[in-house]
Design brief:
396 residues; alpha/beta; 7-stranded mixed sheet; 34% helix; 24% strand; binds MU-OXO-diiron
């Protein structure tokens, strides 16, 4: 399906492409709402500039959109990020516009040369804070590492006060609307995206957002999802997500083979609720990892439910724990509930996998075989202990 170029402001166009059918990103992240690869064209009085390209699978749409706008000559291609969903069509665009120069920072030049096999003489290197004149329009570059790779940068259009924010503030949403309209729906899509992609860089984003306070921003045009004409919506959401505040919640990823863990999980949920704690259970044989990542954004506590398989956790639990460790949520407390048949080192294995998390580990509850009354009492004590820790930390 094609999508025509659309006007953001006079002489500023969205020329990228939606991908309605894409259901997996990086062969890893589920995309229930598809995504967009946003690319923007700015026609200055003297020069024009394309900001990022698109994923190679949608390059024909970008090329059609540029044709439709009558772009016979392209001066600059601003590359905010090397990842191929934005730079993957660079070689095609350079082939059509051989005079175009790729404008980006040194790190991005290095990564783009390696990933796209583009010669060094095609690049113009800029530094943090540099400006590039298009005549009546000026671009200012804000180098912002780790939103989402080490080379990422943001581009600010000085006159129209538009922030082209790279992956930051994006959403995997293949809507037909250019501008964010249904903020309620977008909130969850953007939170899911934050959880999956941005959460590991929460501390970096805290610094970048402080820096952005010195810019007046009328429009945020990210690399995925709709354009924000009310930047406060997404900026406020990010301020909440990246803050150090946690909520009175337990995230409970679990897997059960023969029902023991399931019984423990059921009782645990009940007693957490009795203690006034919200609980977000995720049955790992059914949940999608994006949902689990979203739950990890705010929760004070993570509890993993797993049986013992041979000597360690169930592989689905290993996957969830590995993911939680990689995503570096602001979780404060971790515990485990589970079962075993004849032995093993399941809790020790999990504890050794969460080195990135700055958490206090609360003593696990592990049943031998089917849980009995003592195990259920231990689960009640665990819920009480979590409530006490939440209270002591001022979370309840
Ligand atoms: Fe949308 Fe990190 O690329």
């Amino acid at each position: 399906m094609s999508m025509a170029a659309r006007v953001i402001r006079k002489n500023i166009y969205a020329v990228g492409a939606p991908d309605w059918d894409r259901r997996l990103f990086d062969e890893l992240i589920p995309l229930p709402d598809g995504t967009t690869y946003n690319s923007y064209l700015i026609k200055g009085s003297e020069k024009n500039a394309l900001i990022d390209t698109v994923d190679p699978v949608k390059k024909n749409i970008l090329i059609e959109n540029l044709n439709q706008l009558g772009i016979a000559h392209l001066d600059y291609i601003i590359t905010n990020h090397t990842e191929q969903d934005h730079s993957g069509a660079l070689n095609d665009i350079i082939g059509i516009y051989p005079m175009a120069k790729i404008v980006t920072n040194a790190k991005c030049i290095d990564l783009t040369m390696n990933h796209l096999l583009i010669a060094k003489d095609k690049f113009i290197e800029i530094k943090d804070g540099d400006r590039l004149s298009l005549g009546d329009q000026n671009l200012e570059f804000i180098i912002a590492p780790w939103v989402h790779w080490p080379e990422t940068m943001l581009t600010y259009l000085v006159e129209d006060k538009i922030l082209f924010s790279c992956d930051l503030f994006g959403a995997h949403l293949a809507g037909s609307d250019l501008f964010a309209s249904d903020e309620r729906q977008l909130y969850f899509t953007a939170k899911r995206y934050y959880a999956e992609i941005m959460m590991p860089f929460r501390k970096n984003i805290q610094n970048h957002m402080k820096r952005l306070e010195s810019y007046r921003i009328d429009v945020i045009a990210p690399s995925h999802g709709p354009v924000h004409q009310r930047p406060a919506f997404i900026l406020d959401a990010y301020r909440d997500w990246i803050s150090d505040d946690v909520k009175n919640e337990v995230v409970l990823p679990y897997v059960s083979m023969h029902g023991s863990v399931e019984k423990m999980v059921g009782h645990f949920i009940e007693v957490l609720m009795q203690n006034g704690i919200s609980v977000k259970p995720h049955n790992l044989s059914k949940t999608d990892i994006g949902e689990l990542a979203m739950s990890l954004v705010d929760a004070a506590t993570l509890v993993i439910g797993t049986p013992t398989v041979l000597t360690g956790p169930h592989p689905l639990a290993v996957y969830a724990v590995y993911l939680a460790n990689a995503l570096r949520p602001k979780t404060r407390f971790v515990s485990i509930i589970g079962s075993y048949g004849w032995g093993g080192k399941m809790p020790e294995t999990i504890a050794a996998m969460i080195g990135n998390l700055k958490v206090e580990i609360i003593a696990p509850v592990i049943a031998r075989g089917q849980p009995r009354s003592d195990d259920f009492k231990a689960i009640e004590a665990l819920a009480g202990s979590i409530a006490a820790k939440h209270k002591a930390a001022g979370i309840i």
